[in-house]
Structure formats: C-alpha cells, structure tokens
Design a protein that fits this description.
The chain has 223 residues and is α+β, with helices and mostly antiparallel strands. The chain has helices at 164-178, 189-193, 198-205, and strands at residues 33-36, 67-69, 85-87, 90-94, 116-122, 130-139, 145-151, 157-161, 220-222. The protein is 13% helix and 21% strand. It starts with 32 loop residues before the first strand and ends with a strand. Mean pLDDT is 83; it is low at 1-10, 25-31 and 37-51. Keywords: Nucleus.
C-alpha cells in the first residue's frame, strides 16, 4: 500500500503544498464541503475581489521527445479506447477533453478537463482503513485547471488545489497527522493522479486536439 513516502514532485508547476486539509471545511458550490487553498487572502467566497492564485510554469528544458514501449491499450471494436480501464493501481474512468489554453498543460503533462480516475489510499478519518479517492480535473474558470479529490468515505468533501501535488499533499498531511506518523508530506501529484504513467499519457495523446497543445513535448508510444 502506498503510504505517501517522499517522492519528487513532477507537476512542472510552481511549488504548491496545498495547505492543510481541515475536516468540516465550508460548503462550496453545490453544497460540497471544500478544502481549497488556491485563493489569495483566504478561502473561496471571501469578501472583496480575491482571485485564484495562478500556478506558474517551471520550464523543464531537459525534457526531450522519446519512444516508449507500453502494453496494449484496451480498445473497443471500432478502435476507440475502452473505459473504464485499469492502469496500475489506477482505474481510469474518463480521459476528458483537451483544452489548448496555456494553463492546461506543461511540457510534460496535458491536463484534460473532465479527466477522472480512482485509486485507494489511507483514509483521512479512519486511522486503520483505506478509502477510494476520485481524482478529477475541472475548469477553474480563471484560465487554469482545478485538481479535485473526492474521498468516498466523506461524501460531499472536496479537496481542491491549482496543482495535482497541491491537492494530494493535503491528503498526505491529513493521513500522516491522523496516524501520528512522522513521515514526509512530499508527494508527486501527477503520479498519484496517474498522469505520469506512460499508458495514460498515450491515451491522452489520442484525444482530439492533443497534437495542437503548444509547448507540450510529444512522446511516442509503441504498443
């Protein structure tokens, strides 16, 4: 089981540790309680004209195009990708839609709006149990994506951040604190979202518009 041990961040975005998850966080749109630390000057809904903090890209100049062997991607009779499908410990539910705006990709990753995957990880409320987390990418409405985590044992709770690492760091911190573990809270959000897996990268590159994403370093995958 993945216990959230220290791994390098691979977002390709400015450092964002996501703050701290607080049980019973305020209600967001649609009644879901959110732990949302991507807002300048306080939580979302604060008075004034607070704006979501936009993550800044860190150029990864050593990244080059390469060719990688991958196992066969499950497909329907018409050749389309069959979903849901298991990739490692992840269950990929939806690949989403490519958004070519600058905030929705880095040189290393494409962040499709509507991407959804699930995985198990230690619970933030049951110190001896695990739970299923649904990982989603949504349109933040400010030209950047939002990365949301929905723990199945806390209906209505949404962990949200401007980067995948920011979202998952909140979960790792909460699980370590609950279990009184003196572990590192470092985590690679793209890994925990499944976005760094070559099979997932290959599937995302098959989405319409993926070849039009500016600045993304295209990779070649051989099944």
């Amino acid at each position: 089981m993945d216990d959230g041990a220290s791994v390098a961040s691979g977002d390709g975005l400015a450092e964002d540790d996501g703050g701290d998850y607080k049980p019973g966080a305020r209600a967001g749109r649609g009644g879901a309680r959110r732990s949302d630390f991507g807002v300048a000057g306080g939580g979302a809904g604060a008075a004034g004209d607070n704006k979501l903090v936009k993550p800044k890209k860190i150029k990864q100049h050593n990244l080059t195009s390469g060719t990688f062997s991958i196992p066969p991607i499950p497909r329907n009779a018409d050749g389309s990708i069959r979903l849901p499908t298991s990739v490692g410990i992840m269950q990929i539910k939806s690949l989403g839609t490519v958004d070519t705006r600058d905030g929705f990709h880095t040189e290393r990753y494409i962040f499709p709006v509507g991407f959804e995957a699930t995985r198990r990880y230690p619970s933030m409320v049951d110190r001896t149990g695990t739970t299923e987390y649904t990982c989603r990418i949504t349109d933040g409405g400010d030209g950047n994506p939002r990365f949301e985590l929905h723990p199945s044992d806390q209906p209505g709770v949404v962990i949200s951040s401007g980067t995948p690492t920011g979202a998952w760091t909140q979960v790792v911190k909460a699980t370590n604190k609950l279990r009184e573990r003196n572990h590192s809270n470092s985590v690679s959000g793209p890994d925990y979202y499944g976005l760094s897996h070559n099979v997932v990268k290959a599937m995302i590159q098959e989405l319409p518009g993926a070849d039009q994403v500016p600045g993304y370093i295209w990779q070649h995958f051989v099944e």
